[in-house]
Amino acid sequence: MNFIICFSGQGLQNLQHIEELRAWAEEFKIVDTLQRDLPSLYAEDISEIDLYQNEFAQPFIFALQWCRWQWIRTLLDDVMAFSGYSLGELSALCCSTNTSFEQGLRLAHKRAMLMSHAAQQPSGLIAVQGINLNVLNPYLQASGNELSIKLSDSSFIIGGLNDNLQQLSNMLSKVGTRTIKRLNVSIPSHTSFMQTAVLPFHQELQQHTFSDLSIPIISGSGGHKYFERQDAVNALIQQMSHAIDWDSCMRVVQESLPDIVLEIGPGSSLSKMLLEREPNMIVRAVDDFKSRAGFETWLKGKLNI
């Protein structure tokens, strides 16, 4: 069977994922690395709100995704492509190139630090649904906000400063926009607000030696399917300060006709979006299952093992 693996971004991590990562760390013998490079993971008083701070969230999610992939890769017979949503594109690159956990975690740390420093004022992201982009654009310009992610023709993620986002929310509420929701992300990712992070992250990536891609990557930046390592690296650099076209990425996933799409998490938002577009597609998220054994039982049933 052919699989596509989707790596999620920030916003849906929770305290159960903390316990899960600690358990994986024991299994994969990376406790020392996490205690050194992500010490707050082992803080006794860690709370839900701590999980959304950018400089914790990005390396934490990378670590969780890396561990989940080491487990899942042993269960699958044929993976036709990876796809990464926002931070997930870094995880996809590292997993496809078999980059070491330590190196990938350092890159996630660096990405988070640079993006946090680029956001000099309180800022973040909001989700907007029920409006056309041509109608939305004048409101973005008037409020000083920018498109961060296109999810569909009527669903978008918008990035900007907190005051500007609130202004935009007020403006859109008055014209009957269906849904406006603040996301648990503390930076305006994939907008020009991140521009100062681009060059130093580019320089950081150039210092690392990546192997060739073992699995092609469908880029979240616009649905391009990359088979060459440098193309995937370039896309990762560009998406820091440019809007992601996840709508096009999902279209390419559909057109690839995979037997099963697995969302590696955290969360299940990507799988839900795909199912809305193609209800007959077999799409599941790791977080749909209450246990590792439950996921393995379901997967073995699909594989007829």
Describe the structure.
By secondary structure, this protein is an alpha/beta fold. It folds into 2 domains: 3-118 and 191-303, Malonyl-Coenzyme A Acyl Carrier Protein, domain 2 (3-Layer(aba) Sandwich); 123-182, Malonyl-CoA ACP transacylase, ACP-binding (Alpha-Beta Plaits). It has 12 helices and 11 strands. Helix 11 (269-277) links the parallel strand 10 and strand 11 (283-285). Helix 5 (101-118) runs antiparallel to helix 8 (195-206) and helix 6 packs across helix 7. The longest helix has 19 residues, at 54-72. The chain is globular. The model has no long low-confidence stretch (mean pLDDT 93). This is [acyl-carrier-protein] S-malonyltransferase. It comes from Acinetobacter marinus.
What is the strand and helix layout of this fold?
Elements: E1 3-7, H1 15-28, H2 31-37, H3 54-72, E2 79-84, H4 88-96, H5 101-118, E3 123-129, H6 133-143, E4 146-152, E5 155-161, H7 162-174, E6 179-182, H8 195-206, E7 217-218, E8 225-226, H9 229-238, E9 244-245, H10 246-255, E10 260-265, H11 269-277, E11 283-285, H12 292-303
Parallel strand pairs: 1-2, 1-10, 2-7, 4-9, 10-11
Antiparallel strand pairs: 3-5, 3-6, 4-5, 7-8
Helix pairs in contact: 1-3, 3-4, 3-5, 5-8, 6-7, 8-9
The total domain count is: 2
> Secondary-structure element sequence?
EHHHEHHEHEEHEHEEHEHEHEH
Strand percentage: 15-25%
Total count of strands: 11
* Integer-rounded radius of gyration: 19 Å
Helical fraction: 40-55%
| Number of discrete helical segments | 12
- CATH class category label of the largest domain: Alpha Beta
- Label the CATH architecture of the largest domain: 3-Layer(aba) Sandwich
The named CATH superfamily of the largest domain: Malonyl-Coenzyme A Acyl Carrier Protein, domain 2
The main sheet comes to: 6 strands, mixed
